[in-house]
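In response to the reviewer comment on reproducibility (Comment 2.3), we provide here a single inverse folding case reported in full, input and output, so that an independent group could reproduce the run without further information from us. The structure tokens appear first.
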């Protein structure tokens, strides 16, 4: 009997213990389905794209362009080895390498900077007038839109790559060092890792990868987050958000084949690669696609270009314009998650902008509009009207009794979300989190609008509001989730933050479990003592 009671108590304790063990759940992230593209037989070193159908790759001494249907070699001066490529747009692209920097203006490549004997390894910019290029011996070059200035960092460390979240937050990585630029000076951070590439989703979420190493920066310090047994020499990293990042390379020891690792916001895991893959040297992602290139593995000779469509956490903004003007860019515009996208509205001669609609809501007769921190699909459309008197118009005397119509400005509401926040960043399953957003009407007339709440990029709910001109109000939503995981929240594209659902977010549960265990132990002891007395 004693054995049976103790066995029962043990089973109950095991059951409670199993129930109390949290299940590790990471945010859902659709991994890429990679396909091998048909390309010329070249040794591919680098890749960058303005969109999935506007991609540039470097084959060392040549540059090829993909327009969505085929690869074409672009005429470029000097057959020098290129080791990095980046652009502010498809018509403003830089390539760097041995002996110089080259620039593409949408029509031709030219030598923008000749630097004989130098090795320039990486390039990145925040805009076409703020570009950084890094290389051996601590050389950092900066382009201000007119000239390249050279700074040689005191430690003279070789720098392999550069990336930043903005002009005053730039990271350069290399052999045993990470350099950070705050807009005025560079500050080094020593590390034993030999780093090859760097990318981040923001200033407080930066990854640097290299020789069997993955480091992470959280805005305060760098941490080694290399998974056990990773065995990869990483050469490239890119992502669409903090929970969708790919790093590429090849085995640090062993077979010379390509490897792809993925980060889902909580852990790194092997995602693709292996037999049939060449040694991967770089990766680029944007607009719902990723491209990665290999220096070998092609048929009959040369490298490979692998593509994933439908990944990259991208969104689409559909831009249209009516008669009398244009919007640029136009059509289905692919935008990275968290990125900004500006549209310019230009009327034809003799026309004026009448109204611009964003997601079906009027924002007035504006000439440009920027979507910030894109977290969902959007639409933008522009309407135009003829000017009362415009170029090409003529005056005439007409024998009719009416007065000429004047072009009176139209008063319109202009709504904007000024900020958003969450009541908590942690919740138990089913627990409600309150989302608060400020909405203002900057227009010259009152009106109504619909404010939308998005969770992980999907519309969750909406609120209709009315506002007078110049007034503002808070708008609140509630959201809850039963499944454990991390959920990113935004209101009309303005980030509110994220909250994590933990199976045991309520600390009282742990107390209940502990109490149950103590109660089971007491009951077992009482029964055991009673049995001993009865048999005495």
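Designed residues, in position order:
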């Amino acid at each position: 009997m004693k054995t049976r009671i103790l066995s029962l108590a043990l089973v109950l304790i095991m059951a409670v213990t199993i129930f109390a063990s949290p299940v590790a759940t990471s945010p859902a992230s659709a991994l890429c389905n990679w396909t091998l593209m048909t390309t010329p037989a070249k040794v591919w070193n680098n890749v960058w794209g303005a969109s999935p159908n506007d991609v540039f790759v470097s084959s060392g001494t040549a540059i090829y362009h993909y327009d969505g249907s085929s690869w074409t070699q672009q005429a470029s001066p000097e057959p020098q080895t290129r080791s990095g490529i980046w652009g502010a747009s498809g018509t403003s692209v830089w390539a760097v390498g041995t002996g110089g920097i080259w620039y593409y203006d949408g029509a031709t490549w030219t030598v923008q900077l000749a630097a004989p004997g130098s090795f320039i390894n990486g390039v990145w910019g925040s805009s076409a007038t703020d570009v950084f290029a890094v290389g051996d011996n601590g050389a950092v070059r900066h382009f201000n839109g007119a000239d390249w200035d050279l700074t040689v960092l005191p430690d003279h460390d070789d720098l392999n790559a550069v990336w930043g979240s903005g002009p005053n937050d730039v990271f350069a990585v290399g052999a045993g060092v990470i350099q950070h630029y705050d807009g005025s000076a560079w500050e080094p951070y020593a590390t034993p890792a030999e780093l090859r590439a760097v990318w981040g989703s923001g200033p407080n979420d930066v990854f640097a990868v290299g020789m069997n190493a993955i480091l992470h920066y959280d805005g305060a310090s760098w941490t080694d987050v290399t998974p056990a047994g990773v065995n990869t020499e990483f050469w490239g990293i890119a992502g669409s958000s903090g929970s969708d990042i790919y790093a590429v390379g090849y085995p640090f020891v062993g077979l010379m084949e390509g490897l792809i690792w993925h980060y889902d916001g909580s852990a790194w895991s092997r995602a693709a690669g292996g037999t049939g893959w060449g040694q991967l040297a770089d990766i680029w992602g944007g607009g719902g696609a990723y491209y990665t290139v290999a220096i070998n593995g092609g048929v009959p000779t040369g490298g490979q270009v692998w593509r994933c469509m439908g990944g990259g956490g991208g969104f689409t903004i559909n831009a249209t314009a009516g008669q009398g003007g244009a919007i640029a860019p136009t059509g289905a515009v692919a935008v990275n998650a968290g990125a900004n996208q500006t549209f310019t509205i230009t009327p034809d001669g003799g026309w004026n902008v009448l109204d611009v609609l964003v997601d079906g809501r009027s924002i007035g007769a504006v000439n440009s509009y920027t979507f910030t921190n894109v977290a969902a699909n959007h639409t933008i459309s522009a309407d135009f009207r003829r000017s009362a008197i415009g170029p090409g118009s003529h005056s005439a005397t007409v024998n009719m009794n009416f007065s000429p119509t004047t072009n009176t400005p139209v008063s319109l509401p202009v709504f904007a979300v000024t900020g958003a926040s969450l009541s908590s960043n942690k919740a138990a399953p089913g627990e409600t989190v309150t989302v608060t957003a400020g909405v203002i009407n900057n227009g010259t007339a009152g009106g109504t609008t619909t404010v939308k709440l998005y969770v992980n990029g999907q519309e969750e709910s909406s609120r209709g509001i009315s506002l007078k001109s110049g007034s503002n109000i808070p708008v609140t939503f509630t959201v809850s989730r039963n499944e454990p995981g991390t959920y990113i929240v935004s209101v009309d594209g303005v980030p509110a933050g994220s909250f994590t659902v933990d199976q045991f977010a309520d600390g009282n549960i742990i107390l209940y479990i502990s109490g149950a265990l103590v109660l089971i132990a007491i009951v077992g002891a009482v029964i055991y003592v009673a049995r001993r007395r009865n048999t005495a």
